[in-house]
Amino acid sequence: MHISEYSGKKERTIEYLVKSLPLGKDTFSHGYISLDNIYKSVKILEGFAKKLDEYDLWKSYKALCTSGVREALNKYFFIDYIKNNTGIELEILEPSDEIYLKYLGVKQAIPKISAYEEDGILFTNISSGNIFINILKKDKLMLSEAFPYGNLRLTQIFKDIPYQKQHKAYEQDINKMVLTLKNISVKKISIRHMISSGSSIAVLTDMLKPNKDAIDRKDLESAYSQIKELNFYEITEKFKLREQQVEILIPTLITYLKIMDFAKVKKFLFTRNSFPYSMSLFYSRTIKDADLQNRFKNTLYHIGEKYSYDKNHSKTVTKFALKLFDNLKTIHSLKQKERKLLEAAAVLHDIGYMIEAKNHEQHSFNIIKTIDFPGISKEFIDMTALIVLMHREKQEIYQNAEHDDDNNYLTDKLTGAKNKNQNDYYKKPVLDNQNQSVNNANIFGNRNINKNNNNYHQNYKNNFGYNFGDYYWDSRAIGIVNADNTNNLLSNFSIEKKLIIYKLASILRIADSMDASHSQFIDDFSVIIDSNCIIIKSLAKKYPYLEYLSFYQKSNLFKLTFGVNIEFETDIDFQ
Amino acid sequence: MKNLAVIDIGSNSVSLQISEIKGKSYDIIEDYKESIRIGEDVFKTGVISDSTIQSIMTVLEKMKVLIDKKTDKKEKPYIRAVATAPFRDASNSKDVVNMAKDKFDIDIEVIDGNEEARIVDLYASANFQMSKLNALTVDIGGGTLELIISKEGEITDLHSIPLGMLRLKNDFLKNNPPKNNEIEKLMKHIEKTFKDAGIYKKINKDIDTLIFTGGTITNIASIYNKREHLRDENVNFVDKKFIEFFLNELKDKTFEERNNIKGIDTQRTDIIQPAALIAEMLLAKTNCEGFFTIKGGLKNGLTIDTLNNHGIRMHFQENADVRLSRILEIGSKFFFEEEHARQTEKLAKILFMQLKEILKLKEDDYKLLEAASLLHDVGSYISYYDHHKHSYYLIKNSDFIGYSSNEIKIIANIARYHRKSFPKKSQKCYAELSSKNQELIQKCSAILRIADALDNSHKSAVKNIDVKVDDDSIKIMLKSNSKDADFSLEIQSAIDKKNFLEFITKKEVTVK
Question: Are the CB atoms for A272 and A213 separated by under 8 Å?
């Protein structure tokens, strides 16, 4: 617990309290927090509650929990029980928010970091239950991952292995993590600096007692080689550590050594500021992250490259979308924040191509949903994903506004309207083809093409014309399991947010259509706002057939959203 | 070589394919095509007309720009351009070749019919398990037909005959709509040409699979898919009955009237009929129930052939098993850890073989587990967090060879459940499958969990395993080459993951 007083931008620490209770030990070994430890938590928090009384802080406190509670199966019971017995309302901190807060805390303590972000920096948070790794370079977030590997977790996984063999097990397991890390950071990134935070720092500083806020690799190494030879009690004696600290010492040392090997750095920096202190600074808005937007923007392009996007197309669409946004301000009346949403959606709209061109908007949607960017809210990401999903006209949100072929097929089926050219062959209901085997064509043992297609068909039918693939996350996605169509997805948002999504998707569609050929025939355009029509006048290198076609298909949503016609005119630049 | 661009100059169109090389696999980053009927001039007059030459140059220029735009700026892409029938026949093709060299530094290689057939076959082999088939592969082009007969993977006949669609249309279908006697004459000519080439008899009931490539025939497949509301895939199957029906539909319709056919390529309304006629004839002669079409054709073969020339062999060429090669290609696309994938697959196979009886698994089910073990970690490409769910998604949306879409779902599910959580009926991806398939997923993922755990270190330390099954226990014993191998981590992680197998078999599982 950290109690601060703020006068202006200045923080003064009034009190700092720490109580040790390894809840993670329960969670990482049994999956839940034992009742005994819940009682102990109540005891500790009762004490903290008294402090809140004392300073009259019940209206301005923040109580957060991380992995030990976050991953416990009985977390809701735990939170409820604490609330009923102490009055303290706990909030669960999501992994990306956790690392973001820690990162800001470190950044505040070590101002040089902003410069390091340019050279390549590995920021890690090694705590009892998780290891977060962020790699920043050239103002981009190159990698952001959470690994279930914290020091307490490791001791729980390998608690049944004989003590003298445990360090080998830890080594192997952390090696695996580093291998995974190497594998996912596809391109080699050269890293110059490393900064660490998390509960693991305390045990290292207690043991090594460094003078500065930095620890050298060689010190860690010599400590590790000494410890390997000692037994549990000898370590406790020699380094004057608490038993709980000794338990996590070896996995902590190994984790640091391996990550430093991966980053090829000789030392790492840390701050002695506690996590509650960083929290206090953040929630009191004392620290701000000035680079956040810029870093996020750079990272969008980095993500695009990871999924081999068409950079020129993406840049053009982004340029067009933002220009439209700026020129249509009087009509859409959206703000700067929404402009950022549009920008993110425009950069990423086609990344799903890598998985498959058909249905790429769904793949883009699904990939974007997985983006975890410390400092950017989940809602922002979800809205971006949805705008991207709607960038293709087949994802229609106004019912009956437009029919594509597949929809016509369904209406045909429902109304009994059938193909004029009927013959026996076509009278057969489509779904009966299942039994029709293609013996001769049975090329791969049991591959049966018709059967294959029928599954697809069934799927199609179930979804009533909208095949959205599967929303494959069930726990992380907020309530969008079994969603049938965009409308369902949209229903998770308030009316205001929905309208923002409609507006931005309408603009994105227009921007995308103006580079439909992905060939950048159109360089620039101007927007004329008339009382009943918006005219886009563009200058093209050659007649943009595809762009015209696409514009008239894609502009429908714009008309329906804003209630105004939008026209497209082109002058050919013969130079 | 990072990027490769191939240009195919055919009778009907000029097409370009740009790809990015990724190990033993490649990603197509651009497919571009422009229709120029070079054949039209040549088959009538014997020369490529000035205006056509002009069009070719314009297209090449455009392609050159496109290549520059789409490829790496630092490392120049390798460009290979190939011309077929019309260049072989035209008396002035040398001039055009020289012009392309002078203007754009593009060397156009004029290849003969047999070479063309060989390259097409290369592409077919990437999509079909040729070693199990007696296949007739036909590239239906504008100027020529390339026919390849292969028996169990060995090419027995290669032919290139001048029966291209454009040529047939020009020579025989002079009226719009074509008259019945024109079509009769055309059929007679086709038959005669096949006989003259000495392959008429070779196309018989021994052939069990018909594979067609070429734009016109792929368009017929698209029309078929549209009508049947099927998904247009890379490889499509067209029913024999459809061809009869379709030919009836084309009859007495003008080229313009054909524009109303849903899905038809409006630039092919005149040449689609000869293509359907040839398909009908080959279907009748082989007694196949239908034919396969593969999208792309010569240019895709060219990409593979050019990579081969540079010493890069595709997965399917090294493994002789296209099904497996495609799995590895999918893995490479998402940068999987091939060694861990292969080790997991190896261990999964041993476990599968030893446990298949008590688990009541069929030998054939292994191919599902095989794919799942090789691809179980691909989801890490998206993010390590929840990577099993991402693996599910990527697998489900990948283009496999030799698996039905239902089987792909099973594979995706097996990978989905390779970590801790058990399959639950509340999860849509699992619940949507039949109970029989769900059972299969449970069994296979129970095996995959242990196999994955036994390579927890990702170092392929375990060389072999022994499995002993008793009435109430399953004993898994690890073996290694060196005596002092320490498997404590592998054993520990396998013990963590054994509960699912115990749950299914109701036997105690021990790992030593």
Answer: yes
